[in-house]
Write a structure and sequence with these properties.
The structure holds two protein chains of two kinds. Chain A is of the alpha/beta class. Chain A has twelve helices and twelve strands. In chain A, strand 1, helix 1 and strand 2 form a beta-alpha-beta unit. In chain A, helix 7 runs parallel beside helix 8. The N and C termini of chain A lie far apart (50 Å). In chain B, helix 3 crosses helix 14 and helix 5 packs parallel to helix 9. Chain B starts with a helix and ends with a helix. The chains are: A alpha/beta, B mainly alpha. At the A-B interface, helix 2, strand 7 and helix 12 of A face helix 5 and helix 13 of B.
């Protein structure tokens, strides 16, 4: 069998997937796994045209939940050891990995009295400076704004978007939303930014790429998962389910997390050992850490994303 | 002035002769077959997708104007649209002001200098758009050359990166060549003895310029402004890299609809609106130039 696996694309993340899931799965089963770049627009087009070439995808959960039984299909897997965070397993998706959104500040700008709380990020009077964040509102932005305004983690959902946007309005003229994570990294490394909301894997790359002046703020952490799904009409259904089951097992999950910095295994029975920088950007090392409600987000996705976009482009 | 000169003056035709361009007479002649490859390519690669786009915008998810009302009920999208049109007007105006004297100088200097001027203006044209945009990024950023240079003159903390002026400056530089070339190609065909003739008849330099030279360059201005205006409307990379997301142009909004929301129908509707605005603007430009030329020529004939 030749299994086609659509992943977020080349980079450290994909290399770790090859080392921990893909190669071992090929050795174990004799199947061949071909990697391609995941793109939900392309997937939608393939399924609607009835000409599906992908067997497994790795992407954000909201899409799978919004299109369960329509673009992706129910998964039947049992016998995975360990446990997964509450609410991350759905009919059409299985969690693959946990990431977080880290707040960082530029050491060169705030030498004395550096910012330390989420409220500081939303306070341009106290901490003047450029704020950057990637165009990924689903990564906890509304949640962070509410936390900054004093809402407790338990009371986040349903999100009070008006209240959250009031916080965002405070930093409007001091902020830039970048269409890609790499652009954010470039602004950070060139000292064009002073404060940033950074995906945990990106935080690892920024510091690794010479951004040692970027310091991690120990604030509450919004965790969210990526997940595996199987497109409707995938050519190798049985092999796809076998692959997801294999990759969900503790041994593979541990190896994956240890190969790439800034990610935590979705399987909570695993306790990977990190060294150096990887330990600092481990999203589970922050407290309190809370999981972004995929259930709430998938039900309100378009509305929430549009609200944030109205803010970020006006 | 002999009859040839009259013919030269006649380049921007008065309305009566302009009509003849739309005649279909002679369309069956065999040389028109030469058009076939081009028309076929445009049909497959341009007109067919545009028709699909228009169809999607009216039929997905259901028949009607739903996708269009979405734009006009979204303040972000309407603001982006207005911002885009304003940016296009400002960039066109700046390009015209910079390019006009430049193109004029190209017609009066020695040939060797003209070649040098040609190379200088078209050099950026041979460099990739991304590379040029990144060059501006380095110049405009905090601690960049522009901030340093201005602080020498006592103007401190001017960071163009992330501002509308920062985007406009870069777009003007990138698009300047599209204004210089059409202007130069028209100016180089103008017989400068017309100006001498005007002086002989008693016209001052300024009067001769505004009554003789400027009207003759109108076709070049028209072509240059149309090109720059239309190109600015569709700019995507430069505003993303140099601007702030809060000053997004319509191209960014369309990109977002496709990439983040997979909402092809709304994106199609926005694109169709942009297309319609382009056509209206182009129509106005062409009409404006034709009218002013026609009236000038008419008045000239009466005097």
């Amino acid at each position: 069998v030749t299994l086609v696996y659509a992943t977020p694309g080349p980079g450290a993340y994909q290399d770790a997937e090859v080392g921990s899931y893909v190669k071992p799965f090929e050795q174990l089963t004799g199947a061949k796994v071909v990697l391609t770049e995941e793109d939900t627009a392309k997937l939608t087009a393939m399924v609607k045209a009835g000409n599906v070439s992908w067997d497994v995808t790795d992407s954000a959960p909201s899409f799978d939940r919004m299109h369960c039984n329509e673009i992706v299909q129910p998964i039947n897997i049992s016998g995975v050891s360990g446990a997964f965070p509450e609410g991350t397993i759905s009919t059409c998706g299985r969690p693959s990995v946990v990431t977080g959104m880290i707040l960082m500040y530029n050491d060169k700008t705030y030498k004395t009295n550096p910012p330390s709380t989420i409220a500081d990020f939303f306070d341009p009077q106290k901490y003047p400076g450029n704020r950057v964040m990637p165009d990924e509102a689903y990564g906890g932005y509304f949640e962070y704004a509410l936390l900054a305004d004093g809402v407790s983690v338990q009371d986040l959902y349903p999100l009070d978007t008006t209240r959250a946007l009031t916080q965002f309005d405070k930093i409007k003229s001091d902020s830039k939303v970048t269409p890609t994570g790499s652009q954010e990294q470039q602004l950070m490394l060139n000292d064009q930014a002073d404060l940033a909301i950074v995906p945990s894997t990106r935080a690892y790359s920024v510091i690794n790429a010479g951004g040692s002046n970027w310091k991690i703020m120990k604030t509450p952490m919004a965790l969210f998962t990526n997940e595996w799904a199987i497109p409707k009409g995938a050519p190798h259904l049985a092999a796809a389910e076998a692959f997801i089951k294999f990759a969900s097992q503790p041994a593979q999950q541990q190896k994956f997390a240890e190969l790439v910095g800034g990610l935590a295994p979705a399987n909570t029975s695993v306790k990977p050992t990190y060294t150096g920088l990887a330990a600092q950007v481990d999203p589970l090392a922050f407290s309190p850490a809370f999981t972004v409600s995929e259930d709430y987000w998938s039900k309100n996705y378009d509305h929430l994303i549009n609200l944030f976009e109205e803010w970020s482009t006006s | 002035v002999n009859s040839d000169r009259n013919a030269a003056l006649d380049v921007p035709r008065p309305a009566s002769t302009a009509k003849r361009r739309w005649s279909l007479r002679g369309i069956g002649r065999p040389e028109y077959l030469l058009l076939l490859p081009g028309v076929a390519l445009l049909g497959v690669a341009f007109f067919y997708p545009v028709i699909l786009l228009i169809k999607t915008s009216f039929t997905d998810p259901k028949l009607g104007f739903g996708n269009y009302t979405k734009l006009f009920s979204s303040p972000a999208a309407t603001h982006a649209l207005i911002r885009t049109i304003l940016a296009a007007l400002i960039v066109s105006a700046c390009c015209l002001v910079l390019a006009y004297p430049y193109a004029y100088m190209m017609t009066v200097v020695r040939p060797a200098v003209r070649v040098a001027m040609l190379v200088v203006v078209s050099l950026p044209f041979w460099t990739s758009l991304i590379a040029r945009t990144f060059a501006w990024l380095v110049l405009e950023e905090r601690g960049g050359l522009i901030e340093h240079a201005l602080s020498v003159f006592g103007v401190h903390h001017v960071v163009l990166l992330g501002t509308i002026p920062g985007v406009v400056v870069a777009m003007v530089q990138i698009l300047l060549v599209y204004m210089v070339f059409p202007l130069y190609s028209v100016m180089s065909t103008i017989d400068r003895r017309l100006l001498s003739a005007a002086h002989v008849c008693g016209a001052s330099r300024g009067y001769a310029f505004f009554r003789i030279y400027l009207p003759l360059t109108l076709p070049g201005i028209n072509a240059g402004v149309s090109l720059v205006f239309l190109l600015t409307l569709g700019f995507y990379v430069t505003p993303i890299l140099l601007g702030s997301s809060h000053d997004a142009l319509i191209g960014q909004i369309i990109g977002f609809q496709v990439e983040e929301l997979l909402d092809f129908a709304t994106a199609s509707a926005y694109s169709v609106i942009l297309l319609v605005i382009m056509l209206i603007m182009l129509g106005l430009l062409l009409r404006g130039v034709r009218l002013s030329t026609a009236s000038r020529v008419a008045r000239g004939e009466q005097q």
